[in-house]
Amino acid sequence: MSSAITRRVAACISACVSAIASPALAQEATPHAGVASASLCADAYVLAVIPGQEVGALSWQADQPVSAAPPWSRALPKAWPDAGRLLVLSPDLTVFAAGEGGRTARLLDRAGLPHLELIWTDDFDGVRANLRALGEAAGYPDRAENAVADIDRRLAALDARRAMRARQPRIVYLSASGGSAGAGTFVDAAITAAGAINVVAEQGATGWTRSDPEFALTLEADIVLTSFLVDGYASTFNRARRHAAYRRLLDHPARIDVPAGLWSCAGPGLMEAAERIADAIDAWEETQ
Asked: In 3D, which of 115, 86, 111 has the Cα closest to residue 3?
């Protein structure tokens, strides 16, 4: 039996099962070829490399405030890391974010459905690697290389802007939870690329730090960087919105808020995030 026939049979069986369990789901999730993204992080890579007409499905979060997916893509079928769902969609390639393939990927293997799991990364080198891996897996290596070249060109432009400034400003990042980002995070990579000093990394912190009101009261910065405050998920852990210790940072006169959709993970949007930070640095420098 050919792989194409195997895929059709698997999709038919899954569709029948889904129709029994959930008629609404089976009606909405008609088989759709092309590339499917199973997560918010993978969405950004798929949209950066795959031609629009070849995008078969985006993650269920694509129409949420945390997504930067363009309007045309939000009407596409929705996917998530579930074998039943993906077998019904029967894409030519499924793209998982790091750590999301697991058992679902093994079931896709049995059905003959190709898939790619992105690597976890916190820097631009990893973004380049993921773009190239997707380009090779999907048959669009030239588009991936163009995306990589665009990142390199824009990073070089940020370096040139940094060389023109009198000094490096000091930046503090504050998340909706009240935590921050030390060395080795993609926020730190964006701050560094923009030409600034990450205050939290400077103080020796690595990785993502937890909410600490006392620590927040000691932080001094030229610019405060926030994200996920207005377009993130509502949560009881969003202490930065409620705790008085963070009000000083939130009311900082030189504060920039980066849209959550640009960096749900270290993806292609990390480049624009760095550019927005650089714009904030230039605006701050004009006031000095």
From this structure: 111
Q: Which residue has the tokens 């730190």?
A: 188
Cα–Cα distance measured from residue 273 to residue 258, given in angstroms and rounded to the nearest whole number: 6
Beta strand 208-209 with 180-181 is antiparallel
CA dihedral 104, 105, 108, 110 (to 10 degrees): -100
Q: What is the H or E stretch that residue 116 is in?
A: strand 115-117
Neighbours of 184 (CB within 10 A): 14
pLDDT at 172: 97
- pLDDT tens digits, residue range 28-52? 444 557 999 999 999 999 999 999 9
Question: CA 121 to CA 16: how far, in whole Å?
Answer: 38
- Res 248: pLDDT: 85
User: Looking at residue 245, what is its pLDDT?
Assistant: 79
Under-50 pLDDT residues of the chain = 1-30, 235-236
pLDDT attached to residue 5? 38
* Nearest in space to 43 (alpha carbons), one of 139, 134, 109: 134
The total number of residues written for the chain in this structure: 288
CA-atom Rg of the chain in angstroms? 21
On whether the CB atoms of residues 154 and 139 are closer than 8 A, the answer is no
In 3D space, the residue among 47, 34, 67 whose CA is nearest the CA of residue 131 turns out to be 47
Beta-carbon count within 10 A of 46 CB: 28
Question: Which residues neighbour 134 within 8 Å (Cβ) at sequence distance 6 or greater?
Answer: 45, 46, 49, 50, 95, 116, 118, 140, 144
- The number of beta carbons lying within 10 Å of the beta carbon of residue 98 is 17
Q: Exposed, middle or buried, 264 (CB in 10 Å: 0-12/13-18/19+)? A: buried
